[in-house]
Design a protein that fits this description.
153 residues; single chain
């Protein structure tokens, strides 16, 4: 079997679960800070829909925090499914009723269904997936080899 020089097996490219959890926790804190900052400096659609995307990014970081060996696509799909599930739950009266009694419930569950939110959750999941996938793919091109050329060892 021919392989690219300098490539590593996926097993060696995966960071230790403790390091992944630490990075995911840091990313969650940064995501919350970004969402709060976005809300403070923007109004209207930018703040609302940017917040929707960041909500799903936050969920993705929490998935990685809970399951550090999760594949990027699985983490993104899980975060998107939870985001969509919560949005569709807003078609019932449950989130609105809980939101009337709790600020935390209002932040986590929202209160009113808004179809465009579904798109922005997908944008957040895609952005999170791109970051995770880019972080976990080792470089296959070494110095002295042109991109696309094959080296037989």
């Amino acid at each position: 079997m021919t392989s690219w020089p300098g490539t590593r097996q996926r097993a060696t490219a995966v960071a230790a679960p403790g390091r992944v959890r630490l990075a995911a926790a840091g990313a969650a804190v940064l995501t919350v800070a970004a969402a709060l900052g976005l809300r403070a400096v923007s109004a209207g659609s930018v703040g609302k829909y940017g917040g929707d995307a960041l909500y799903t990014v936050l969920l993705l970081t929490l998935v990685v925090l809970a399951a550090p060996r999760v594949r990027p696509l699985t983490a993104a799909a899980t975060a998107l499914a939870v985001s969509w599930g919560i949005e569709f739950l807003q078609l019932s009266d449950v989130p609105a009723e809980l939101s009337r009694h709790s600020a935390v419930a209002r932040l986590v569950l929202g209160s009113t269904f808004n179809a465009p939110d579904l798109l922005w959750y997908a944008v957040g999941a895609a952005a999170g997936w791109l970051v995770l996938a880019g972080r976990s793919v080792p470089s296959v091109i070494e110095e002295g080899h042109e991109e696309g050329s094959r080296c037989d060892a």
